[in-house]
């Protein structure tokens, strides 16, 4: 059973998500939080597998709550899935920086949301290309000058790993990376694993950030 904590400042939204989660035989809601402080406290008390986290909440917003959860060693197994809209581009990217495993639009279809919870609970990052590309490209149109040091990518990775990292940054799945580079799926996964280790990345979401911040992928690429 995948345990899910729902965090949103609107009771109706929380209730709707909880009902949806409980409707799936392999998922179960373990609590509801009306603000970021409560989300963090319930995460520590309930140790859910996944937190569905809204961004705009009182007392402590979803970004800071995400940062608090992912920074707590006792909550290492808790994954945060941020709920957002296209009106919150900068905030969604900041949530990835804070350690979120991915993000969804609030108008996501119910079946897709349940699948997203399963994906995140399994240790993968949820980075749908249509959402990822728009959010990250919009954010990186206004980076600090030092944020993009050059097109060579991060230091310490091989040329093939740079190619893989660039494709991750573009939102490619493992299967798509394997097809693009004409390698086996297991080889693509091996490259991803090495990148996670070399870049000390928590998950695939942080690899996307590394691809953009290192200059390996630029806004408007592909």
UniProtKB/TrEMBL annotation:
Give the Pfam families listed for this entry.
GerE (PF00196), Response_reg (PF00072)
What are this entry's molecular-function GO terms? DNA binding
Q: Which organism is it from?
A: Kitasatospora phosalacinea
**UniProt modified residues of type 4-aspartylphosphate:** 54
Protein name (database record): DNA-binding response regulator
**Keyword line:** DNA-binding, Phosphoprotein, Transcription, Transcription regulation
Q: Which residues form the HTH luxR-type domain?
A: 150-215
Q: Which residues form the Response regulatory domain?
A: 3-121
- Where does the UniProt annotation place the signal sequence? none
PROSITE patterns, per database record: HTH_LUXR_2, RESPONSE_REGULATORY
What's an example Gene Ontology biological process for this entry? Answer: regulation of DNA-templated transcription
SMART domains attached to this UniProt entry: HTH_LUXR, REC
